[in-house]
Amino acid sequence: MKTKRLPLLDFVNHKFHTPTWLFFVLSIVFILRIPSFFEPYSYGDEMIYLTLGEAIRRGIPLYSGIHDNKPPLLYIIAAISGSLFWFKAMLAIWNILTIFLFWKLVQALFPKRIRLHKVVTSIFAILTTIPLLEGNIVNAELFMIGTTIAAFLVLLTRKLNFKNLFFAGMLFSFSALFKIPAAFDLPVIIFAWLIFMKKTARKDILKIGVSSLFLIAGFLTPILITFVWYYLRGAFNQYLVAAFLQNVGYLSSWRPSDVEKSFLVRNAPLLQRILVVLLGMVILYWKRGKLSQQFIFTTLWLLFSLFAVTLSERPYPHYLLQSVGPISILLGLLFSNKNYEQVLVIIPLTLAFFVPVYYKFWYYPTTTYYARFVKLSIGKITKEEYLSTFGNQVPRNYKIANYIISSSRPDDKIFVWGDSSPIYALARRLPPGKYVADYHIKDFSSPAETAAILTLEMPSFIVILPASQEFPEIKNLLFKNYGKVEEVEGAQIWKLLKPTLRGLNNFNFSVK
């Protein structure tokens, strides 16, 4: 069934020509990403993704066999990459393609405004690349904005028939299968259709309804396929809880003291943010006759993306990447427009800059990041000194991993207590249980349950990192079955004893 194009941004499907300036921007982006190819195994999230990717490569089922709380696409990319270097390289390629698609989207929104294309695309390229918002780190946001932009591009430049609507819905779904908050970008287009609907064309409500159903059907299909996939592998409950239901707990999770308060009090900030989005939509609808469709669409995109960014109220800077698209467009309008909308964009931009200030989002220095790489490149600092700039524990983790690699087989299990994920990723060894980070054990399991798994599985090595939380349940296991074979900068490495030595109790072991 085909539907006529709805009255949203009725653009001509231009033939796009890639200009020289865009090649220059993409070349700069690639150059800015070169230092990321030489980053050490250090960033916690990347280490978890790589460890789960290693598990996938070995046939261990996600969620039931090994755990994290995101949908599967990012772990699958980690499995394909196989190492941090290729993980970063795949991100670089994806980011360059995303910038190209974003330029096409901007060109569709603002035909023939070359200066605006340059400004907006350049802002987007820089903000999604530099360390300020963790553009150098492999995180779900950098992948999901690519498929979201592709979905908007399809909806704004193609006929709104079943095929294109369903395909756009699938692209939104792929975004959500990188990370659930991406789903909040889908309503942008539906509410835009409703706002642009003419008062004298109420019959368009039916067209909007049908098109929305096609779009939502496309969105739900890949997600339902993943449900069937994990159901057939006996991991449906674990998948549903880990990838979807546990993320509900992110709401206000940065305020753990509010857990015992009433529903309205506990969720008052969330309800306030919902009201802000609703108020913004009402104002856009009220003033739609005086505002351009481009301005309305971009502001809607900003409102919904900021709502998604602040769902958990956590101050991680990579969350803000979801809003970089509309922010870049609005900044471009501020710098390039010469009409009253140049002033109006200050309102949504004020909201965009208020959010990171109010929620105290972190940020990372950019000049320091590139300066230390230059020092490494020209030999002013050694490789170990370079590793130390990412944290004093990084060289130690490399030494521990090298020891484990040389003293064990690839299929041997190890257990690390403390900041564990970098060692798992570096050594390419898996834990005996399903959790690869100590906070996973604290949040979703318990030391007692972990000790029981260790007693049953008997990993080849147990590593106790310095400054780790007390783990008294493991002392007896270590005393009976393990011997401390190495200590690396305060980290204890314990090796499983031979069966004939088990039960010896005359060793003077100490566990910090």
From TrEMBL:
Origin superkingdom: Bacteria
Transmembrane portions of the chain: 21-38, 73-103, 123-156, 176-196, 208-232, 270-286, 295-312, 343-362
Keywords: Membrane, Transmembrane, Transmembrane helix
Name used for this protein in its record: Glycosyltransferase RgtA/B/C/D-like domain-containing protein
The species this protein was found in: Candidatus Woesebacteria bacterium RIFCSPHIGHO2_01_FULL_38_26b
Lineage summary: Bacteria, Candidatus Woeseibacteriota
